[in-house]
Amino acid sequence: MMKKLFYILCLLVFVACSDDDDKNEVMMSDFDKPFTSISKSELKGMLQDFWLIDTIIDDYFEGHRMDVVGPIEDALDKYDVDIEDFFTFNTLNSRSTAAPVENKFTGMKIAWNPATHALDTTIDADGFIEILIPYSQTDDSRNNLRIVINGEWSNYTMKEETKFYLDEQLIMTTERLYNEDRDGLSVYITENTPPYFYSYKAFENSQANFPTSEFIVRKEGGPSLLQSINLENGNLVLLTEYNNLRAHVTVNQYNNFLNLVNQLEGNNNKLALELWKKNMSAVIVFTDRDEKIGDLDVYPDEEDDNLPLICRFQDGEEFRLPLIFFSLYD
């Protein structure tokens, strides 16, 4: 049961971002926001958005992204180009941020030659890697798929940007940034395939029980999803934000609390669940106004091993929510 509870809580994911243009403005805490005056019937309709979280993820990863990436991967396979080899070359040979003068970089141009049915490689003085191959699987007369890879490398940081052009039109941009220092390892990955944008951030510190992370998928003119997990002053902070709704959970002094719960797991699950509920604060709020929809809670259900989520309105009525969070155990 505790693992199922952790399923709900530990990646009740993903951090609410705000533009702090006025540094002197005091932001109201989600937990201090008053209840909204909007009717329950309207609120229940709004909360239905949480059932659409899987839809935006699937529409991107299984739909639009595959429509863009699939034919690119097919072309790379057809014309025998291993793009990861060029990522490695680029990373190891690009200009060093630590010694930009001493570490010179000469780029490469790889182009499909239909006459020889092979790849031609030449020096590219512009300092990046350029790959030119046909997009078509059956007609290799036009190198209309252009891939440009650029990167920077130092002792602790690797950064790569890759752009994909079809018939001279930019169809996808990806960035990968890795940084390692004494504080830990951080990773930042983005994909821009209009009208979708995707990003993933993670930071791993050996002192923490899990890496902090942030996940974003948004569609221009459509839905947006942001999920995150973080430690702030020893407290576990978990958020899921879909459009203008945010589910926000804080577990006080998480590391100390987790040790206590682990001792109870399997021996007294009911008490362990009560400890979770006593040590956490959880609400659902609007992101575009200082109003609360309701308090967020979990409750045991003998017929549902996933510990369902509920939103408790101001009058105490409970409204069932779907499982909208990721599992650490998948």
UniProtKB/TrEMBL annotation:
Highest rank taxon of the organism: Bacteria
The protein, known as: Uncharacterized protein
